[in-house]
Each structure stands twice: as C-alpha cells, then as structure tokens.
Amino acid sequence: MNKRIVFFFFLVLAGFSLLAGPVPEAAEIRVTILYDNYTAVEGVQAHWGFSCLVQGAEKTILFDTGTQARILQANVKNLKVDLSRVQMIVISHLHGDHSGGLEWVLSQKRDIPVCLPANAKDEYMAKVRQWGGLPQRIRESREICHKVYSTGEMPADFDPVFTEQSLVFQTAKGSLVITGCAHPGILEIVRRAPKVVPGLPRVVLGGFHLMRKNDGEIRAIIQELKAAGVERCGASHCTGDRAIELFRDSFAERFLQLGVGAVLTFPW
C-alpha cells in the first residue's frame, strides 16, 4: 500500500481517537468500613458495632452508625472521610450498636433522609427529626435510590415483632447485599434478595450473627449461601470469630476481609 495512504489512514484514526477522548473508567461501588469489631488498617479503633459508607450509586449512603459517636468520629477523622457528602442514611435496625452514632452524624449533615425499619416508634422518629434528619419508615422492599433497594423490614429470628432491613445493590455482575446483624437469618436475607433485585446475590457482606451456631450449622449455611449464588463473602461484626474463620477457609481468595478502614470495590 502507498505510504501516503497509510499515513492518511493513521491521521484519520488518530483524529477519531482525539475526538472520542480517553476511555472512561468502569463505574464502581466503593464500600468503606467505618465501624467494626475488627480493624483493617492502623490508626483506627475497633469496637462492637457496624457502619459503612457506600459511594458510587446515585446517592452516597451511610449504612448504620456504630455504637459510640466518639469512636465513629475518630475513625471518620483518621480515615479522612467527608460525611458532608452523605446524601442518605439507612439504619438496619434499632439496636444501639447500629444506631448509636446517628445523632452525631446528623450534627455533621442535616436535612437528609434517614431510612428506618417501619417498627421505629413515634418517639424515635421525633428524635431523628429533632437531630436534623428526615426520618422515613421502610416497611416493604423498595428502591430507595437508583438501583439501590431495601429488603424491607424482616422479622428477627428471636422476636417476630423486632425487624431489620438490609441493602441490595443491583450491580453489573449480580447483586451486592449488605447486612447489619442479619437477625432475620443470613440465609433468609440472601433468599429475599432475588425477589427484590433480578439476578443472583453474588456478594454478601456485613454481620451474620452466627456466634451461637456450631461448626456443622455454620458449614451448612455456607454451602446454602453458595448454592444461592454467593461467590464472594465478607463476614464480620457479630458473625463470631469461629464462624469468620470457617467462612475464610471456605471462600479462600474470594473471602472479603472487613474491619475498620477496609475499602472494597465492585463493578457497578
């Protein structure tokens, strides 16, 4: 081929490349653990409770607020997290180890929705309004922002009156499920996820509340989670040390290590 023609085609292709601009990076969901029984980095505090910041969806979501405001505040500061960017708060359930830091968080960012299980009492709703939040009761499963869903309140296995909600994110490779304590049962939550979001629940993380289960029961739960589609798992908080060890052994390189300061990303 004539060298001038080759050079011409090269210029044309280069021109199209410049017009198109750089190839954008794939969108992702980013989960940062702010409060947990364990630490993943130095300079932060472990304490019984759970909280994580989820970025990359339509809204930046704070899921749960840990137990003690001073510990949450210290971890947020040391991790250089900007809570002024939070656009929505979701409280999984009203135990103190998941809602204890809410008043402090709302002192940092007012007038944002606070999604609570529908069994929240009127007195608590009034407190949230007093603190500066916009409380919303979540009863049925529903979309709370684009491609982000609440499972709706689910009864706890120890008390049918007490309820808990979990989050389900519709991602490019199946759903991501984040739990607080999984009092309704981690299997029940994972089985609810496909009814909320089409597709299999590929990733599950949070507290699984398996401290009182024996090895055989835990191994059976792990196998049922895998059969339900779970490929990657991050068990922490109230899961229990032995249960976490069994999850780590079973999922191997697909086990997600949590703890304060852990940052996990998923395709969105």
Detailed description of the structure:
The model is unreliable at 3-25 (pLDDT under 50). The protein is globular, with a radius of gyration of 21 Å. By secondary structure, it is α/β, with parallel strands linked by helices. α7 (215-227) crosses α8 (241-251). The protein has helices at residues 3-20, 69-78, 96-99, 102-108, 122-131, 186-196, 215-227, 241-251; strands at residues 28-35, 51-55, 61-63, 88-90, 113-117, 134-138, 142-145, 148-150, 154-155, 163-164, 167-171, 174-179, 201-207, 232-236, 263-267. The strands form three sheets. A seven-stranded mixed sheet has the order 6-5-4-3-2-1-15. It has a single domain, classed as Ribonuclease Z/Hydroxyacylglutathione hydrolase-like (Metallo-beta-lactamase, Chain A).
Condensed summary:
The protein is of the alpha/beta class. The protein has eight helices and 15 strands. The N and C termini lie far apart (45 Å).
Question: Which SSEs are present, and which pair or pack?
Answer:
Layout: H1 3-20, E1 28-35, E2 51-55, E3 61-63, H2 69-78, E4 88-90, H3 96-99, H4 102-108, E5 113-117, H5 122-131, E6 134-138, E7 142-145, E8 148-150, E9 154-155, E10 163-164, E11 167-171, E12 174-179, H6 186-196, E13 201-207, H7 215-227, E14 232-236, H8 241-251, E15 263-267
Parallel strand pairs: 3-4, 4-5, 5-6, 12-13, 13-14
Antiparallel strand pairs: 1-2, 1-15, 2-3, 7-8, 8-11, 9-10, 11-12
